[in-house]
Design goal:
By secondary structure, the chain is an alpha/beta fold. It has helices at residues 42-49, 72-82, 98-103, 115-127, 143-155, 173-190, 201-204; strands at 3-13, 16-26, 31-35, 57-62, 65-66, 83-86, 161-165, 193-197, 209-214, 217-221. The structure holds adenosine-5'-triphosphate (ATP) and magnesium ion (MG). GO terms for molecular function: ATP binding; ATP hydrolysis activity; transmembrane transporter activity.
Amino acid sequence: MLLKLEKITKSYSKDRTILDQLDLEIKAGERIAIVGPSGSGKTTLLNLIGTLDRPDSGKMFFESQDLSAFSDQQLAAFRNEKIGFVFQMHHLLPQLTLHENILLPTLTDKKLQGKETLERAQKLIARMGLAEVTHQKPSELSGGECQRTAVARALINRPGLILADEPTGALDQKSAFNLTDLLVELNQEEGVTLIVVTHSMEVARKMDRIYRLEIGKLQESKP
Ligand SMILES: Nc1ncnc2c1ncn2[C@@H]1O[C@H](COP(=O)(O)OP(=O)(O)OP(=O)(O)O)[C@@H](O)[C@H]1O
Ligand SMILES: [Mg+2]
């Protein structure tokens, strides 16, 4: 099991529980979609899985390690090594080129900076179809190119898990399908586990399993 959530509960205020004793198990290499109404807690759940926030109660295991036992500092190192994030808006740094943005997650760790990382970046750039635009800045790129750059940045450290929160939400339909296909291909080629939050059933159907988040819990839903 790559990831196991047991009875995870989270609320932001006393009068409303967002996640209510939620359970989830994900094996390495799976592709999971999470769908559900706006405000149902999908981003809240991804933030917990991504260790950007902690649950009020319940346990979370990653590769059998109990994450509640980690200090904030240990979590930061864990997150940088094991998890790649892709958001609805790309969050690229405007002053850096595409190439520099992709290398950003490697700058915090000396042992990540070497020939191998540069080769990895080159390979991802080619894989994402970005070879022509590597020296351009985000303002000089299309929305689809920015999102593909964000995916490359998420993958640079070879994480075991990619968390994508509406990664195609700001794209036109063609770019959205193109990005989804790329994510699926990377899952198949590199074995990276994918959790994708989406409002699009077409995107969700490309995953192995679809979960619907409603009233604080996940229900497996038929595609
Ligand atoms: N930091 C916060 N403080 C207080 N309330 C919050 C906070 N973050 C989220 N909420 C509330 O928790 C609920 C769930 O929010 P969340 O962002 O997880 O929903 P979502 O399913 O991702 O919605 P959407 O599909 O619109 O992105 C919402 O009602 C939101 O207002
Ligand atoms: Mg959200």
